[in-house]
Amino acid sequence: MPLSTHTPEFRPPKPPAPSFFSRLAIALRAFFRILADADYAARVDGLRLGAGLEPPPAAPPATAPTPVPAVNYNDAALQLLALLQRDARLIDFTQEDVTRYSDADIGGAARVVHEGCRKVLREHFSIVPVRQEAEGSRIILNDGFDARAIRLTGNVVGKAPFQGSLSHRGWRAIEVRLPTFAESHDVTVLAQAEVEL
Amino acid sequence: MSEPLYSIGIDLGTTHCALAYVDIAASDGEQTLCAVLDIPQLTDPGTVEPSALLPSFLYLPHAEELTEGDLDLPWSRAQDYAVGEFARARGALTPIRLVSSAKSWLCHAGVDRRAAILPNDAPPEVARVSPLDASTRYLEHLRQAWDDAHPQAPFAEQDITVTIPASFDPAARELTLDAARAAGYGALTLLEEPQAALYHWIQASAGRWRKDVQPGDIILVIDVGGGTSDFSLIAVLEREGNLELHRVAVGDHILLGGDNMDLALAHGVARKLAADGKQLDPWQMRALTYACRVAKENLLTDAALEVQPMVVPSRGSKLVGGSLRTELTQAEVRTTILEGFFPEVGASARPATRTRGGLTQLGLPYAQDAGVTRHLAALLGRQVGATSELEGFAGRVDTDASFLHPTAVLFNGGVFKSEVLAQRTLATLNHWLGAEGANPARMLAGADLDLAVARGAAYYGYVRRGQGVRIRGGTARAYYVAIESSMPAVPGIEPPVQALCVAPFGMEEGTEADLQMQEFGLVVGTPVHLRFFGSSVRRQDQIGTLLDFWQADEVQELGEIHANLPAEGRQPGDVVQVRLRATATETGTLELTAMAIDSDEHWKVEFDVRSQDSHRE
To answer: Cβ contact (<8 Å) for A177 and B50?
Structure first.
């Protein structure tokens, strides 16, 4: 019996080398550029982002063998932005000019953003370290290690097995649980304007 | 109907609902396979997300407020209302369209619970719904969520258990049953929430519970949820070598819970902000209440923490410039929560009650005393003799005790996620026990505070099929109707009433009791109203027992009941002689039936009388 009856809207392909947070930053930069630059948007639209990548090994098998609908990555990025705005006020925070505020004021707002981002990550993603070992420990990488998940740095010479010290454990998303939305839903509205009657 | 594959347990809570299920075929004996359904629900317009909890809120939107498709669910496109997280979030900003605490209204005998009265402060243009309707919609949502996820095992063919507070009176139990039937539930069973919590504890122990309790134990279940406090006492007996559990007493219905605690803190902080000239709108107040809940948990968990900073986000888009910074201190939490809601009182403390003014507000009868420990002291004091007649307890009961001595405590409900509050409650109880020379009570560990009731209910549906231990005890009250005594009238004095026992304490499910000695004359076409009473302490009264007087705290008046003989086939005004029969149904409700003496006819006696006609013309 499945312990969760919830079928995620999509399971992401195995993430490439950038960490989740770098990808978030990339998504944000891309998002604003897509809105501002029509040529860029056309090029992004033409990209086949998921082609050739295999599904993550740690993900449990889907409960029903229904064909996975093609994911519209723009929609998913907008949805994530809307969630980060709703729960973490991320767009408000990044769009505001903070130069004239004190660190205490910014720190207060950062609590809202931090707590909200945590909530979004916890509720919509399952994120686990790529490597389970403690940072700083010596590890051995055998021949055929996954170079998409592990980045070699420093004195990169010779052949596998490689010996080295783990400086960052890495992060991997093993599940994405974005909400489903109605066909008529306008994903470009990241936060509704509010009018109090 | 095919054999059920799953036993489904539904926690129909005041603030949250949950659904858990046991796979019957995959479970064996006390090893069960139990899971919780993630309930898809609207979280924003046009956005559906699953969550283990369905907030018990109903939002009735304005026709122009949303666009087409905004209220669509995976299984429905025709709904013109929202339940769950979106209803709660949007309703906080537009309370005139929000129905909340429908369950508390369902057991409020002062209103007509089938009438469209909610939201009770809505302007005339909002189409109101009845407390029964609101509960029906939550239950319907759960059924549809199940069917959507399990098309191969339709809800209607599964074994369903719905939980209710132990303190629900017969009318509220029947209304819950009616709501479930209206929501498309077939056969179902009602289970008291504290019992469900104990079932979950038994289930989670996977058989070890037999080592954790001994014959002679009295388990006190303290269930403080978002909106209500509910207590039950369950005794452990040994019969023919097997441990048996008997629910010996339940507490009164107390509208007091975790939401009151967070609100109390938020109002305290709002006063501090107001003193600095900062006013909060309802949106900010809600954000502050949420922030207080988080800060409270942190402060209660770590007593060394002096202060927790909090931020009330701005409503507008200027987050840094518009947010209010404030703080909650350790002292404030201790004063408000520990001393306000869990005071260290003596065993003889009792909740303060004010007599309500002549102008009774048409609102919910919230507890007038916020002290959970005082309500607990009152229950234990009232139930001091609860086990004296119980098999195996005769020699153990301390006749000098001023209150019933529990030996173990099981906590349930989100409030006790703060371990400090559980410890404070236990310490207060153990102080009372120590003062009477009794051993301290121990805490039964391992409860899942949010989902124990739903899980325990699913487990109960499974043990009812013959696997595992069941809690016995029958009805937790004796019930009476008022008979006007035939004393000569004294001018200026209301004629005294006598209370006639129509259903004794502890009627087991599936039994019935006939009242032989008293006959009633029912007038055809004219409803007969009877005052109805319940007692949670008079265990000795048999059916037909006539009480001339009683202590005020011994017998409580419940809503009126009425019997109505339809005029078909009879002359209006004819009198038919009837006897009353009480039935404790397998479902978990009490039924009163008027049985005609001269024929085979019988009529159901209704518990929930419309409040408007409760005053006889």
So the answer is: yes
Contacting residues of A for B307, CB less than 8 Å apart: none
User: What's B487's DSSP letter?
Assistant: P
If phi over 0 gives left and psi between -120 and 50 gives alpha, with beta otherwise, what is residue B544?
left
User: Which chain A residues touch B45 with a CB distance below 8 Å?
Assistant: 185, 192
Sign of CA dihedral B607, B102, B76, A123: negative
Q: Which segments of B279-381 are extended strands (E)?
A: 307-312, 324-329
Q: What is the pLDDT of residues B412-453, one digit of tens each?
A: 998 898 888 999 999 999 999 999 999 999 999 866 788 999
ipTM above 0.85, yes or no: no
Task: For residue B321, list chain A residues with Cβ-Cβ distance below 8 A.
Answer: 96, 101, 105
Q: Cβ neighbours of residue A23 under 8 Å, at least 6 residues apart?
A: A15
Inter-chain touch A105–B325, beta carbons under 8 Å: yes
Which tokens hold the place of B24? 């019957």
Supply A96's token pair.
């505001």
Q: For the packed helices B372-382 and B419-435, what is the interaxial angle rounded to 10 degrees? A: 40
**Angle (CA) B234 B237 B238, round 5°:** 155
Tokens read off for A59 = 């993900």
Chain A hits for B149, Cβ within 8 Å: 5
Judged by CB atoms closer than 8 Å, whether chains meet at B35 and A185 is answered as no
Task: Write phi, then psi, for B224 (nearest 5 degrees).
Answer: -115, 105
| Interface mutation vs chain A, best among B319, B325, B327, B328, most A CBs within 10 Å | B319
pTM: 0.83
A2, A89, A179: residue with CB nearest B47: A179
Which one of A98, A192, A194 has the shortest CB-CB distance to B320? A98
CA distance to B230, B410, B438, B442, B465, per residue, from B431 (Å): 21, 17, 10, 13, 41
Continuous segment of H or E residues that includes residue B512:
strand B511-514
d(CA B39, CA B142): 7
Contact yes or no for A112 and B37 at CB 8 A? no
CB atoms within 10 A of CB B464: 16
Phi then psi for residue B98, to 5 deg, are -110, 130
B531 CB neighbour count, 10 Å cutoff? 17
List pLDDT tens digits, range B550-608.
Answer: 887 888 888 788 877 776 777 777 888 888 899 999 888 999 888 888 888 888 888 86
User: Identity (one letter) of the amino acid at B230?
Assistant: D
What Å distances lie between residue B464 and A1, A40, B161, B458, CA to CA?
22, 64, 10, 10
Output the six-digit token pair for A68. 């996975």
Q: Are A4 and A62 in contact (CB under 8 A)?
A: no
